[in-house]
Amino acid sequence: MTCYEDLKWRGLIQDISDDKLIDKLNNESLTFYIGTDPTADSMHIGHYSSFLISKRLAKYGHKPILLVGGATGLIGDPKPTAERPMISKEEVEKNIKGLKKQAEEIFGFEVVNNYDWTKDINVIDFLRDYGKYFNVGYMLGKDKVRSRMESGITFAEFSYMILQALDFMYLYEHKNCTLQVAGSDQWGNITSGIELIRKKLGKEAYGMVMPLVTDSNGVKFGKTEGNALWLDKNKTSSYQLYQYLINLEDSMIISYLKMLTFLSKEEIEELEKKNNEHPELREAHKALAKEIINDLHGEGSYEKARMMSEALFTGKFTDLNRQEIEELFKDYDKKIVNNDINILDLLINIGAASSKREAREFVLGNAISVNGEKVNNLEYIISDKDFLDDKYLIIRRGKKNYYIGMRG
Q1: Residue 81: which residues within 8 A CB-CB, separation 6 or more?
Q2: Does pTM surpass 0.90?
Q3: Are 360 and 344 in contact (CB under 8 A)?
Q4: Cα separation, 378 vs 367, whole angstroms
Q5: What are the Cα distances from residue 40, in Å, to 87, 164, 173, 231?
Q6: Which of 217, 316, 330, 386 is most buried, by CB atoms within 10 Å?
Q7: How far apart are CA 251 and CA 135, in angstroms?
Q8: How many CB atoms sit inside 10 A of residue 56's CB?
Q9: Whose CA is closest to 258, among 1, 5, 12?
Q10: Which segments of 232-388 are extended strands (E)?
């Protein structure tokens, strides 16, 4: 497949600014940019689809640039419903360092910061050199601005599209960047940049937007109750990513495989067949998780996450090391446990039973396991051998109730 055909098959093109871009994608080597504002010191999984298209274009011979918005991040791209809270210059600077490091490590892109070419423009020059090329009626027609007209939009937010257009023109002049790529919510900002380049330089530039990756209800991919799944493994572990991806809805999984992996058309079609015939095996989900986790966290990260998930499902933890146990149970309360404590007293002390009578029922009913081994002896005494990695004791009651003890 050609570059354009591949992107279309994967559902990665929602709109392009000019049909001439199709031939350029297929037969030329374009420099393009994709941007993000430094609202946090890590990108999240919602950014992943956008930046993955850059790796895909690079495989076809195009040159990516990642723009981190040190200037635009101080203003904030207008949200459809309300003004973004402003963040301090110190926080923006800290976030830029994190994003730059992450982009270079994960994606290998050249990284630029729009603060470098914006900081010395005074307000008069901004209005004369850039503002004069923007008709207010044209700006009011943009979706993001129009959606805020009733609730109100500040002049700072209103000016955001001029700043982004300025970025496109700067990169056109200094990096020979002729294409901007982004999610579909950036279409208005991209076309503003194309217009500025045409009016001020008399040159032609192009834009391409992809659909936002969402679930079947239209909720942005990668968000869970407002909490992002971060690309930084110190913020979101491989295990947490695995749990999220393995539980994605069946109806969307093939779309995600097309958009978020480099698996071939034949490989994805085979996974689609397996998913239709045996959805309970979740082979397509596992393939998606493997591709994303290993790409973000390194080879072997998926297998580690899968092993941890399997341990939690089976209750067998003897193959896990201390770090993996701590990661798996980091949100659990941990109670101090001393040697030579009877199993009944232990269950009461860690909260698995409310009384000795209840503890006896659990033990005799075969409902209690210690580190994956069933305990049905009322006289069982905890000793050194029961502590995993000489530190942790994992008690399971029934199938899903876990209680974590720590050596005192």
Answers
A1: 147, 148, 151
A2: no
A3: yes
A4: 12
A5: 10, 19, 29, 11
A6: 386
A7: 44
A8: 18
A9: 12
A10: 334-337, 368-370, 373-374
**Using the 8-state DSSP alphabet, how is residue 2 labeled?**
-
Q: Which helix (H) or strand (E) holds 65?
A: strand 63-68
Contact 304, 325 (CB under 8 A): no
DSSP 3-state of 403: strand
Taking each helix axis as running N to C, give the angle between helix 265-277 and helix 253-260, from 0 to 180 degrees, rounded to the nearest 10: 160
| Residue at 40: amino acid letter | A
Report the C-alpha gap between 195 and 206 in whole angstroms: 10
Rounded to whole angstroms, the Cα distance separating 96 from 73 reads 10
* CATH topology (fold) of 3-210: Rossmann fold (3.40.50)
Domain definitions of the chain by residue range: 3-210, 237-314, 334-407
Main-chain dihedrals φ then ψ at residue 65, nearest 5 degrees: -125, 135
Look up the CATH architecture of domain 237-314: Orthogonal Bundle (1.10)
Beta-bridge partners for 33: 65, 180
H or E segment and range at residue 288 = helix 283-297
- What tokens were used for 19? 């049909």
Give me the tens of pLDDT residue by residue for the chain, a chain 408 residues long: 999 999 999 999 999 999 999 999 999 999 999 999 998 899 888 888 888 999 999 999 999 999 999 999 998 887 777 777 888 999 999 999 999 988 888 888 899 999 999 999 999 999 999 999 998 888 888 877 888 777 788 888 889 999 999 999 999 999 999 999 999 989 999 999 999 999 999 999 999 999 988 877 777 766 554 567 898 988 899 999 999 999 999 999 999 999 999 999 999 999 999 999 999 999 999 999 999 999 999 999 999 999 999 998 888 888 899 999 999 998 899 999 988 999 999 999 999 999 999 999 999 999 999 999 999 999 999 999 999 999 999 999 998 899 999 987
Q: How far apart are CA 287 and CA 261, in angstroms?
A: 9
Interatomic CA distance for residues 43 and 32, integer angstroms: 20
DSSP strand pairing (206-210 vs 177-183) = parallel
Give the type of residue at 144: K
The Cα–Cα gap between 168 and 150 comes to 30
Class of domain 334-407: alpha beta
